[in-house]
Design a protein that fits this description.
The structure is a homodimer. The first copy, chain A, is mainly β. The first copy, chain A, contains 8 helices and 32 strands. In chain A, strands 10-9-12-17-14-15 form a 6-stranded mixed β-sheet, with no helix packed on it. The first copy, chain A, has a 6-stranded mixed β-sheet with strand order 21-20-25-30-27-28, with no helix packed on it. A 5-stranded mixed β-sheet of chain A has the order 11-19-18-13-16, with no helix packed on it. In chain A, strand 22, helix 5 and strand 23 form a beta-alpha-beta unit. At the A-B interface, strand 1, helix 2 and helix 8 of A face strand 1, helix 2 and helix 8 of B. Chains A, B: Belongs to the multicopper oxidase family. Chains A, B: One of its GO terms (biological process) is negative regulation of defense response to virus. Chains A, B: Its EC number is 1.10.3.3.
Chain lengths: ~575, ~575
């Protein structure tokens, strides 16, 4: 008895020690992706959850940790992948989680191991990257704290995590079919905005409250506003990330200012705002000091920007303790800026600069400049988005495998164009709206420095140009500048900010404007660069960058089971 | 000029000759399975079509032909397979089109070649056999005519093909999630019945017509009754097949009798009926003589049997030429027999016998008897159907590959039970409703003769026992008998019809009754035997028969790309 107790205690100690050791290095997760019923806005819908939950579980790690997600696909008949948005995947390009690009979709009943390192503290998230599964609810937060012994360059007393999204009542299957149909069927505006998977639809809570007419009776906890419990006179970090399908958002807190300190996992020079625009694919940290009348609670709200909004704002309550969280704020929710007030949006974007001393400045010159014209087009009567007149059609065999193993004809050959015709008028609909579909890719010299100019233009309708948040996989990039109208290769280049441009992984182009970014192609792999609006990507709005693929290590077979790599593997023709 | 004309003519002749030669032997089809919008009952829905059409194209061939279907999966994120219902697949078990059983689901963008021989003239159909894709509209007709020089044992002047189905407005994704959820959510009764993909919903055509109040105004051609144009005093063959998800149907034609001549691709001794019950998975040919008043048109209608109907009948018009097809029949559509009048149904089933001289009688004794108790159960609180207390859970690796290559642990070991406890009361709900899930399979000695007794029982609710049409893949079987209550292994066996039992591939068990079948295990492969009701199969209502797997030829790699066979192939461990 004594011996067995001793054994038990020893084994407990060993297991505790092992856990402690592993906790600081590798974090294990076992996930099952499957359909669940949920009511994010109190309207029940079948959506994609992880381990029965929506949104998926939050991953919390420290910089330098290794994340280990054993992902089982428990969908009935569909494949699945998960992309770790903002994580560079240096040395593990096969773990980027992009179907047709970095890996084969995981078949039903199969398990895929995502194993990757999180290098840098910051606010990240993850989401589906196959078909439009992100819009079906397949997303969650990934928060990386500073490594032990390291410190964030700002102080706070507590933090909250707000994952923002938008919500459609139509299934993603119906959405995908509509977008792929002739005649084209647009998905329209979302029915609801969500904060941490909860939003207020149809019960008109926001409207009622603005009019002071009291609480919505039918509100269940599924869609009740999230409560942020705070103490007076403290400073809180709000981590905000947007994984919306379509909506550009604006977030504000009644009576409170916010100090922006982080963008996409990079520190920025702190600046104060009353409200903040967040585009799909972006993340921010803001510091909020609870210095207002502590006997009151306050609304935090998010509303739609950049498209004529048909969706009510979503709300959260900043609850000053010891007030009851159900005590309604005395003041109305913040008013969302006019949707078309782009100057307001630009003034925010222009203020985002690298934090002094946080990173070294970018290379002062680039080896190559790629100008990407964003246009709405038709291909054989199907409505598409195109880049330099090519609408991206992903190939059946993921690029990473077919390029690494030099398979022929796995995707369209030829380099896509580096620029667009000089006589193209970005202010008017395309004269000839026909474009073509292709899966061709930009091959980029390893370790070279590349400038990309994203040039916005008129869409198919007259006087319409839309916001597009572009997200780059595998890299952060410096945002060198923004401008209105057509990019001028002399004047605008001369005005690039080469001193303290912010590092981002997502950046917006404003209507009829351009945005210039620079990155170093130092991450062997194949990387998507695309509009983060889910239906736009589905309609072909993206390009593929391949760099240093010859330096990619041994790709796990599980990432190669489909298409030509699958066939080659089976014929034993791959190393 | 003259030479080139000559060349052109010669090449035309050669091509015509080649076509003529190939037309009688191998028939090539190139199909793309994809989502389309369609309005089968004038309510638009996204459904699965083939080459943009719903139902899929009709395959027409002659006995002895080889069918060659190059099937491309153009669904966005889902796998797909197609089962050729009633085709034996002798020598080609990998072409049976059953996911998890005969092949891996075809991934999006991939193409699979179905190549198989149609041996026997008859009325067949094809349909999806992965998840509940059949219920999403993935089906069509497969008609095999007598070989050149052969004759059907009956004469007719023309024929019509009627593929019957039922239709739900809820998507199959929502249906699958509900059926797989705790608490269980039943799909309910179908919204509409369809004849050749058309039905009348909500516009209450049938009701109006019965009351003589005229045509439904809003009817568009998508859901208008199918018109069968006939001449007076001729005999027509109606080919009728049912691929319903749930509904058992009854078909009748106003004022006309029908002579049943074929069932499931086998000739039956002709007999006359006023109406005919058709269960999901069955097919019939009936002869109808147009001997009624030729100045009138007549209704053909199908209605629900065996479940309290909440679905209106679907209609077709038998249009005696030269009447206008839009001339409404003078008499009301036939009245569907009372849904619970099982004696009416039994009297039909009992009359179906093999046509004299058409086939040889069955082996007069069996080598083995397997008794399969059908019960509704719960497994960990999930509602399931079980066979001898096992609810079928299909494995990630298809049986055919894992058995052929003797892979370990690809499915649950152990033989499932051959019988059920003698004290089980089939008339009452299970005392202990808990059952287990398993993927274990019945291994059957090659070329042995097997009797299977399907024993129906009470469902979970008191006084409820449902109809289940059981379908066997890879074989026709003889229906040796039916009975009420518990099967008696002495008395009932003694009463088996061993003289002229009909050959079928699908047979029904009536509430609280039993059905006995016999088959010869002469088809090397792995074959599903299951309730053809789509939600019941999804809930585990089936068993697996494996026979002579060692005689299976080289399985095409394309059928093995998933699960353990996929891994073994990639590690080059398979022959």
């Amino acid at each position: 008895m004594a011996t067995s107790s001793l054994l038990l205690i020893s084994s407990c100690i060993i297991s505790v020690l092992l856990q402690a050791a592993s906790a600081s290095k590798t974090r294990h997760f076992k996930w099952e992706v499957g359909y669940i019923y949920a009511s994010p806005d109190c309207n029940e819908k079948v959506l994609i959850g992880i381990n029965g939950k929506f949104p998926g579980p939050t991953i919390r790690a420290k910089a330098g940790d290794t994340i280990h997600v054993e992902l089982k696909n428990a969908l009935h008949t569909e494949g699945v992948v998960i992309h770790w948005h903002g994580i560079r995947q240096l040395g593990t390009p096969w773990a980027d989680g992009t179907a047709s690009i970095s890996q084969c979709a995981i078949d039903p009943e199969e398990t895929f191991l995502y194993r990757f390192r999180v290098e840098k503290a910051g606010t990240y998230f993850y989401h589906g990257h196959y078909g439009m599964q992100r819009a079906a609810g397949l997303y969650g937060s990934l928060i990386v704290d500073a490594a032990d012994g390291e410190e964030e360059p700002f102080r706070y007393d507590g933090e909250f995590n707000l994952l923002l999204s938008d919500w459609y009542h139509q299934s993603i299957y119906d959405q995908m079919v509509g977008l792929s149909s002739k005649p084209f069927r647009w998905i329209g505006e979302p029915q609801t905005l969500l904060i941490n998977g909860r939003g207020q639809h149809n019960c008109s809570l926001a409207a009622h409250l603005i009019e002071g007419s009291g609480k919505c009776e039918s509100m269940s906890k599924d869609c009740a506003p999230v409560v942020l419990r705070v103490l007076p006179n403290k400073t809180y970090r709000l981590r905000i990330a947007s994984t919306t399908s379509l909506a550009s958002l604006n977030l504000a807190i009644g009576n409170h200012k916010m100090v922006v300190v982080e963008a996409d996992g990079n520190y920025v020079e702190p600046f104060m705002v009353g409200d903040i625009d967040i585009y799909s694919g972006e993340s921010y940290s803001v510091l909020v000091t609870t210095d207002q009348n502590p006997s009151s609670n306050y609304w935090l709200s998010i509303g739609v920007r950049g498209r004529k909004p048909k969706t009510s704002p979503a709300l959260a309550i900043v609850n000053y303790r010891p007030n009851s969280p159900s005590k309604l704020p005395e003041s109305s929710p913040p008013v969302v800026p006019e949707w078309s007030d782009y100057n307001h949006s630009k003034s925010l974007s222009y203020r985002i600069l690298a934090r002094r001393g946080a990173t070294k400045p970018p290379p002062q010159s680039a080896d190559r400049r790629i100008v990407l014209l964003n246009t709405q087009n038709t291909v054989d009567g199907y409505t598409k988005w195109s880049i330099n007149n090519i609408s991206l059609a992903l190939p059946p065999t993921p690029y990473l495998g077919s390029m690494r193993y030099r398979l022929k004809n796995a995707f369209d050959g030829g380099m896509p164009p580096e620029n667009f015709p000089s006589n193209y008028d970005v202010m008017r609909p395309p004269k000839n709206p026909n474009s073509t579909q292709s899966s061709n890719a930009y091959v980029i010299r390893f370790n070279s420095t590349v400038d990309v100019i994203l040039q916005n233009a008129n869409a198919l309708a007259v006087n319409v140009s839309e916001i597009h948040p572009w997200h780059l996989h595998g890299h952060d990039f410096w945002v060198l500048g923004y401008g209105d109208g057509r990019f001028d290769e002399e004047e605008d280049v001369a005005r690039f900010n080469l001193k303290n441009p912010p590092l981002r992984n997502t950046v917006v182009i404003f209507p009829y404007g351009w945005t210039a970014i620079r990155f170093v192609a130092d991450n062997p792999g194949v990387w998507a660069f695309h509009c983060h609006i889910e239906p736009h990507l589905h309609m072909g709005m993206g390009v593929i960058f391949a760099e240093g693929v010859e330096h990619v290590g041994r790709i796990p077979k599980e990432a190669l089971t489909c298409g030509m790599t699958g066939k080659m593997l089976m014929d034993n023709h791959l190393p």
